[in-house]
Amino acid sequence: SYVLTQPPSVSVAPGKTASITCGGDNIGIKNVHWYQQKPGQAPVLVIYHDTDLPSGIPERVSGSNSGSTATLTIRRVEAGDEADYYCQVWDSSSVHWVFGGGTRLTVL
Amino acid sequence: EVQLVESGGGSVQPGGSLRLSCAASGFTFSGHYMDWVRQAPGKGLEWVGRIRNKANNYITEYAASVKGRVTISRDESRNSLYLQMNGLKTDDTAVYYCAREGLNIAMALDYWGQGTLVTVSS
């Protein structure tokens, strides 16, 4: 089955740029979605279709996807960005949604 | 306003059954695929399964970890989604979320409920 690999944790200072990667076999040909989850809350969609922002998500958040890696980038990081982030793709061969293991973003 | 409200969670012994419900409002429920996603304590998100809409024959798809033990259904007249779980195992302990697959956004899960906790323990 298809596997998505994320780093368990990423740390960044306030005001800097955070990059969270999501690796998968030829992931560049898939649509990647990203979710933010804060403690005790349901996940929130922050990027869909690799690069698109849902309404209400700040333009500091962006996404990219090429080759074997998709990346979620958060510029000018704020304390409120501290959360777990998950990538997701549809695996057409197994007919499953697949989530990455999640990355905890810590704002120093 | 789109709302998804899960109910039916609770404690159950291994081998038992439970039926979760998800009440949807604020959108045309019949037009959307609907999913169940779970999260074990301190762990990541795990997709459980989904049910397509009427136009796509209500086809269901399940994760390998639950296939044969769970059934997803929907009732358009009640704008409700269901997850029937049988033969529950301790590994099924998790918060269960229902989520909507959005239209025109590559089917991303654009709205989620608040979740309902299922605890499987003897």
**Strand elements of chain B, count:** 11
Shape of chain A: globular
- Mind telling me the C-alpha Rg of chain A? 13 Å
Radius of gyration of chain B: 14 Å
Number of helices of chain A: 0
Task: Report on the biggest sheet of chain B.
Answer: 7 strands, mixed
Proportion of residues in helical segments of chain B? under 10%
* SSE topology string of chain A: EEEEEEEEE
Uncertain residue ranges of chain A: none
Number of helix segments of chain B? 0
Q: Percent of residues of chain A in helical segments? A: under 10%
Low-confidence regions of chain B: none
Quote the distance from N terminus to C terminus of chain A.
36 Å
- Beta percentage of chain A is over 45%
Average per-residue pLDDT of chain B, rounded, comes to 96
Measured by DSSP, the beta-strand proportion of chain B falls in over 45%
From the spread of the alpha carbons, the general shape of chain B counts as globular
The largest chain-to-chain contact, stated as pair and per-chain residue counts, equals: A-B, 26 and 22 residues
